[in-house]
Design brief:
The protein is mainly β and about 220 residues long. It has a domain of about 140 residues: Jelly Rolls, CATH 2.60.120. The chain is built from 1 helix and 15 strands. Strands 1, 2, 3, 4, 6, 11, 12, 13 and 15 form a 9-stranded antiparallel β-sheet that branches. A hairpin with a 4-residue loop joins β3 and β4. The radius of gyration is 15 Å and the shape is globular. The N and C termini lie far apart (about 35 Å).
Length: about 220
């Protein structure tokens, strides 16, 4: 059984506390609104999580638990800065990942983060690219490696992100060396890195307080950029 999943936990707390407040990047549209670009590209993979046998990781660990609910996939971090994630048990190269994410519980100060991971080649350690938003309205992009982590985009505030126990539509692009994060139709972050070229996708959540957080994911669609 996998043990603590804490590759990025703790360090995220410090950076979130140090994040500078910047002007918002626009008014978010309705949840589920598609990201930029026209047309409807063919899905490489999609899941509304109505079938608990669709292949996602299910389990409970020291840091939290992951599994299927009633038409959603949940990720629970037990708190204290431990990061939890669940993998799809698939492999991709260049992808666009879109998903509706709903924080349903968390600490009173919303000191959490959640989002998607792309190109994780090692689901045990959680290497790969983390495209994240937080319960208190910040976004970030991080790279997790066997040696630790590197911040490609530090936590930055945006009014595009709905705060607290509510829903946000996340669109993460991993194309070649380019990474981008769009929230509720607003492009909030871009970065470049070429270390990881393929791997699994995952859904992730962290609580930085001693109170657990649960995030539920639904309507996931993976397409080519």
């Amino acid at each position: 059984m996998k043990q603590h999943r804490i590759l990025l936990g703790g360090a995220l707390l410090v950076l979130a506390a140090m994040a500078c407040s910047l002007p918002g990047l626009g008014t978010p549209p309705s949840i589920g609104e598609p990201g930029a670009g026209g047309g409807a590209p063919k899905a490489l993979f999609q899941d509304d999580f109505s079938d608990p046998k669709s292949g996602w990781e299910v389990g409970e660990y020291d840091a939290g638990k992951v599994g299927y609910g009633d038409g959603y996939y949940y990720v629970v971090s037990y708190g204290d800065g431990d990061t939890m994630w669940g993998v799809a048990n698939r492999s991709f190269t260049d992808v666009v990942i879109e998903v509706d994410a709903t924080q349903v519980s968390g600490p009173a100060n919303n000191n959490t983060d959640y989002g998607v991971i792309c190109r994780t080649a090692d689901p045990e350690s959680g290497t790969g690219y983390y495209l994240l938003i937080s319960g208190d309205g910040y976004y970030a992009i991080a790279k997790g490696t066997d040696e630790g982590y590197e911040w490609l985009v530090d936590f930055t505030e945006s009014s595009a992100i709905r705060q607290g126990n509510t829903s946000n539509h996340i669109r993460a692009v991993c194309q070649g060396s380019k990474l981008s994060l769009t929230v509720n139709g607003v492009l909030v972050a871009e970065a470049e890195d070429s270390e990881f070229t393929s791997g699994d996708i995952a859904l992730t959540a962290t609580s930085y307080e001693n109170t657990p957080t649960e995030v539920r994911f639904d309507n996931l669609v993976v397409t080519k950029p």
